[in-house]
């Protein structure tokens, strides 16, 4: 059951980035859309993420519960040293969701709509930025268990160039995923061309942000290059992501909805695999060289067994209904599109 729990943890993190990240990316795309096109973008993104925007946070909740129950030492360490960026990220999730609801369902249309729009787009940017900074901190070895000052304990681990670079890289990936997904949601050629252009721009920004991550890692003496290219699996994953990039640009200008989405998801998956494989099963690296592992720092066997069975039985009930949710809204959108005007 230990392996089952680890698989569920890895899948929940991956799915949150692919699905929840695309939701955040919709706000990022809107943030960097021209004023005249913002209403069009809002209508399309609402149609795309409206049915499932809240369901995607299920994957984050699952990951947190797994860490809390199955890996209490890892959860405790993160909660202590990274509680500030985690709190900002959670506030961003709450603010974004609240603004998303009010700007669409508020009975009164007034100047508050402008406030809701600003909260939505800025929290959509800040939340994945903090998520990426947390991930960068977990890998960078910046957490110092011997630190004594407030800044060294709670700020220095994530307030550095490497964590910021990983955060910007995450933002670019989320924007890229959203742009690719929205190409298939656009119902006219003008909007489709806009999202194709944005997908290309965000893809280039992701490449540039990735270069910044390597530069920051070199500056702060983090062996990222050795992790990625010294490990065979990581090296092949990087090659696969690079090869998919060529195909993605080919299909991008053809507007192939399904192939683009599959390639974008594959590319992000390969990037995560390349980053995580070398250090796996280590989940958190501390400054003194201590590595908190998903194997060695797990809860007792009885706890993992109960958690594993809960995850397996829960997925039997949840996943079919989640699939039906996607299917039901897709069918409704198709019927709406086929109605004569």
UniProtKB/TrEMBL annotation:
Transmembrane segments: 6-32, 53-74, 80-99, 119-141, 161-183, 195-216, 236-253, 260-280, 306-327
Topology of the protein relative to the lipid bilayer: Multi-pass membrane protein
Keyword Magnesium among UniProt keywords: no
Subcellular location, principal: membrane
Subcellular location: Cell membrane
Keywords recorded for this protein, A-Z: Cell membrane, Membrane, Transmembrane, Transmembrane helix
Keyword Cell membrane: yes
Short name of any one Pfam family annotated for the protein: Cyt_bd_oxida_II
Family: Belongs to the cytochrome ubiquinol oxidase subunit 2 family.
Entry protein name: Cytochrome d ubiquinol oxidase subunit II
Protein species of origin: Compostibacter hankyongensis
């Amino acid at each position: 059951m230990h392996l089952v729990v680890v698989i569920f943890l890895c899948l929940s993190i991956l799915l949150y980035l692919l699905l929840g990240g695309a939701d955040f990316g919709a706000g990022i795309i809107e943030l960097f859309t021209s004023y005249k096109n913002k209403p069009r973008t809002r209508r399309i993104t609402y149609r795309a993420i409206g049915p499932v925007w809240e369901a995607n946070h299920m994957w984050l909740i699952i990951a947190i519960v797994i860490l809390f129950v199955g890996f209490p030492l890892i959860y405790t360490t993160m909660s202590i040293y990274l509680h500030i960026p985690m709190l900002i990220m959670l506030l961003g999730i709450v603010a974004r969701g609240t603004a998303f609801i009010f700007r669409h369902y508020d009975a009164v249309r007034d100047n508050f709509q402008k406030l809701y729009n600003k909260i939505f787009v800025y929290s959509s940017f800040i939340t994945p930025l903090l998520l990426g900074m947390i991930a960068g901190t977990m890998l960078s070895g910046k957490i110092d268990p011997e630190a004594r000052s407030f800044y060294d304990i709670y700020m220095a681990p994530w307030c550095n160039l490497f964590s910021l670079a990983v955060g910007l890289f995450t933002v670019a990936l989320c924007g890229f995923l959203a742009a690719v997904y929205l190409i298939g949601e656009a119902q006219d050629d003008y909007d489709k061309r806009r999202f194709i252009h944005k997908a290309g721009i965000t893809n280039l920004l992701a490449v540039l942000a990735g270069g910044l991550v390597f530069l920051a890692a070199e500056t702060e003496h983090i062996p990222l290059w050795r992790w990625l290219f010294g490990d065979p699996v990581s090296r092949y994953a990087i090659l696969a992501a690079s090869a998919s990039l060529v195909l993605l640009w080919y299909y991008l200008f053809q507007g192939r909805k399904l192939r683009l989405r599959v390639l974008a998801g594959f590319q992000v998956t390969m990037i995560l695999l390349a980053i995580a494989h070398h250090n796996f099963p280590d989940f958190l690296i501390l400054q003194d060289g201590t590595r908190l592992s998903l194997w060695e720092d797990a809860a007792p066997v009885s706890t993992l067994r109960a958690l594993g069975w809960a995850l397996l039985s829960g997925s039997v009930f949840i996943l079919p209904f989640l699939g039906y949710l996607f299917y039901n809204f897709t069918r409704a959108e198709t019927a709406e599109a086929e109605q004569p005007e």
